[in-house]
Amino acid sequence: MNVPSESHATPSSVALDKTITPEGIRVEVGQRWRDTDPRCHGRIIEIERIDELNGLAYYKAGGIRNRIRISRMQRRHTGFELVR
């Protein structure tokens, strides 16, 4: 499916596609996201791999591989925002 990384999806497609954030942004490999948690001030992650089946994004921080549920990737106090 060729959809631009900043495309906004319809509510019905968000429910079916686990690679789309609650705000309607498709998460893709290579994207950079800023952590909005004040405890992690300035942290930017780069997506390395996507698990479409389980709705997970994998990234490396401090030399350690981590994962985050894509449904958490939204602009809020303890979420993430896409870096343009």
The total of beta strands comes to 5
Q: Give the neighbour order of strands across the main sheet.
A: 4-3-2-1-5
Overall mean pLDDT score?
Answer: 84
Radius of gyration: 12 Å
Query: Kindly, what is the distance between the CA atoms of the first and last residues, rounded to a whole number of angstroms?
Result: 22 Å
Measured as a percent range, the helix fraction is under 10%
- Sequence of secondary-structure elements: HEEEEE
**Helical stretch tally:** 1
Q: Which structural class do you get from the secondary structure elements?
A: mainly beta
List the uncertain runs: 1-5
Strand content: 25-35%
Give the biggest sheet: 5 strands, antiparallel
Shape: globular
Attribute tags:
84 residues; mainly beta; 5-stranded antiparallel beta sheet; 1 helix; disordered N terminus
Overview of this protein structure:
This protein is mainly β. 7% of the residues lie in helices and 32% in strands. The chain contains one helix and five strands. It has one helix spanning 11-16; strands at 32-35, 44-51, 56-61, 64-69, 80-82. The protein has a five-stranded antiparallel β-sheet, with no helix packed on it. A hairpin with an 8-residue loop joins strand 1 and strand 2 (44-51). The longest helix is centred in the N-terminal third of the chain and has 6 residues, at 11-16. The two termini are 22 Å apart.
In brief:
With 84 residues, this protein is mainly β. Helices cover 7% and strands 32% of the residues.
